[in-house]
Amino acid sequence: MSHDNHDEPSAGSSGALDNRPPDTQIAEWLSQAMGCHGRGNLSEAQTLYERILTHRPNYPEVLNFLGVLQQQRGQSVQAELLIRRAIASAPGYAAAYTNLGNVLLIQGRHEDAIAAYRQAIRFKPDEVEACVNLGAVLRGLGRLPEALDAYQQASTWRPADANIHYHRGLILADLDRLEDAIQAQRAALEHNAAHLGAVRALGTLLHRRGEVDEARLVFGNAVFQLGEAEEALALLQYWRRLMPNDPIAQHRLAAWFSGETPSRASDGYVTYLFDRYADCFDEHLVEQLGYQAPAVIGARLAEMLGTPAAQFDVLDAGCGTGLCQPVLRPYARRLTGVDLSPRMVDKARDRGGYDELAVAELTAFLNERPGAYDLIASADTLVYFGALEPVLTAAAGALRPGGWLAFTAEQISVDRAPDGYFLNKSGRYSHTADYLERALAGAGLELLARTDATLRQEDDQPVTGHVVLARKPAAAVDQ
Q1: 65 is in which domain, residue-wise?
Q2: How confident is the model over 435-444, as pLDDT tens digits?
Q3: Quick one: CA dihedral 128, 133, 139, 144, positive or negative?
Q4: 245 pLDDT exceeds 90?
Q5: Shared domain check, 314 and 213
Q6: Residue 232 has what pLDDT?
Q7: What is the dihedral of CA 317, 322, 327, 328, to 10 degrees?
Q8: CA atoms within 13 A on the CB side of 362
Q9: Which phi and psi angles does 471 have, rounded to 5°?
């Protein structure tokens, strides 16, 4: 509902012969009417508007508002008549022209609506609602250059309005001006990062230009920011339709539906996730989420192994940026780190302290190194595996007889995960205690200790995990 202030001039008072209520009473009724109208109490608002018109029959603002109300009631003819009376009483009343255009548009009188919007803008160039509505109707009629002009004018007066940039971008895309369209959608997201229409449009435009990685980044950032909100699901479904084979969309979408759980996160998903987070990983995880997994692993190793003496060949399995290096280095005569994310490994290399760093998928890496390690530690890595049997069997093969395995996993109850693991909407897996024991036993590893600990915070809630220490029997024969 658009409006300007066009109060009738006061007629003053003519004493006892003038029975009209004073201006203060009229103003009070108008304030009450507008309040009722804003709250959706149309009947009471209409009564008050009509009471005012009984005493001020040519009050432009009241005629305009009552016309809008009648259109809300579906009374289009009465709405048009009332708003035209408002314009007749105040010929330069831009907001009334805007509302007239809205009424005419509902009636399907497109050219008349366009003329009304143009009149509103002529009288008041910063009548943004008229500019926006004019742009919308012109775009609907296929008159794209004129529509773009209207949205450009709206943007001039309201440059921080994300929705205006979004619609301007749609028209630019219709005109095949892709670079300008992309910049318009970026402007929309600059002013409202949660504008999902702009996210979809920008991702689509980038994909259309063949910039698949950039499109994935746009969709991925929005999905991760939305977390478990329902809007994330709609965006994931759109992303999957646009890019059917994209591993990130596939994994995150699977996390929303039971019965479609993959046995582990794909290499593409893990690489994308951690390459994306590499530059801010330490700050985000440690400072914002209170990440504790390396510390709790270190505490359990100290309890079990005693004073470190640089006596072991050690593997940091899923080393990330190297947050476990200070915990593991004192035990290592040689410390190796492996991670699937090249950018994470670069950060670990910058941190220092490793004798060897490799970019590889963990299970394959372990299978290629039989009997290579005395200690394998894995902090917050197995949360990207559902079925643990393959990776634990590979770890057992990579350990020497009597070698140690330490890892963390997120907890879940048996009733929520009857198969032993569950893919959360976060994209990470949780595991039951019983399943961990079975998987370790099946891999030929002896469970020595399983304790509970808070691994991190998420949505201001602690994430409780298992801290597991297991050992390969000294008498075991390497597979």
Answers
A1: 15-261
A2: 999 999 999 9
A3: negative
A4: no
A5: no
A6: 85
A7: 50
A8: 30
A9: -140, 145
